[in-house]
Amino acid sequence: MATPVYTDDIIPAQNRAEITSVNDEDLLIVSQSNELKKITKSNLKESLGVNENASNISTNATNITTVSDRQDVILENLITNGDFANGTTGWNSEEGVSTVSSNILTNTANGTAAYSRINQLIDVTANENDYIFVISKRQVTNSDCESLVVLIRNNYSLPLQNLEPILNPSANTEYIQYGSVVASGDYSQIRVYLENRYVNTTTASGKVMEVDGTYGIFVLNLTSIFGSGNEPSADLMKKAIDIVGYFEDTHTMTNKEIMLAYSEYLKDIVTAITELGGTI
Predict the structure, then answer these.
(1) Residues 6+ apart with CB under 8 A from 44
(2) What is the pLDDT of residues 59-108, one digit of tens each?
(3) Where are the domains of the chain?
(4) Which of 66, 129, 201, 252 has its CA 20 to 30 A from that of 40?
(5) Alpha helix locations (H) across 3-97?
(6) Is 72 or 49 the better-scoring residue by pLDDT?
(7) From CA 170, how far away is CA 148, in angstroms rounded?
(8) H or E, element range at 235
(9) Which of 268, 106, 147, 126 has its CA nearest to residue 189?
(10) CATH match of 74-248 with 2.60.120.260
């Protein structure tokens, strides 16, 4: 047997001699009274206080019960028909008209405003300071667009904080726009807008925005899902959505999906640090 290594804090000097009499098949534990107790395979259950059903384990110092703190991560997408599988059902068009083909919604501006957009009214329980995450993928087919904007409002009024706009998007280039906003009050409904803006009505007329339903549109109340103070970052949620893919209503994440999301998120952090000249 290998020479034992010990400290006075763990094994008192008066007990050290006993170690030489313990073989590799035995275990040594130190009781609250600082005395060594030898446990063999044959008396392990009795020494640790395990009953015949092995449902409870206890020692003199601690009672250990079978407790599972594992909770499933159940994502809830508050958007309906976010993949446009049912055409434009659930979606309203403003200052333009919309059609759907192969899960792509095409919105064409009519020139009555310097923008065109789609929106959906969502019934939701959102309390003040809840984090609302929104993500979508879209493009414009022209080089005149000034910005792609996501608006989140309490129905038609009382705007929440909007997502960071994508300025001067390139034509025929898909952008994944995402982020989290914090509810400024208690809401029973919110309205989400996907908008493309132009310098004036003349420029806007006839311009096309395409929204990718194969990627899907998502609105999630992160506070409701994860609890206050536990909301993941928008970047981490994007990784989760990229891995899970579109779902209607709810999706229970598997352990594999969770680990992949964290892995991809950490890869991005390492890349960013490296590009800044740092090392990990």
Answers:
(1) 27, 50
(2) 433 433 333 445 789 999 999 999 999 999 999 999 999 999 999 999 99
(3) 13-65, 74-248
(4) 66
(5) 44-48
(6) 72
(7) 11
(8) helix 234-244
(9) 126
(10) yes
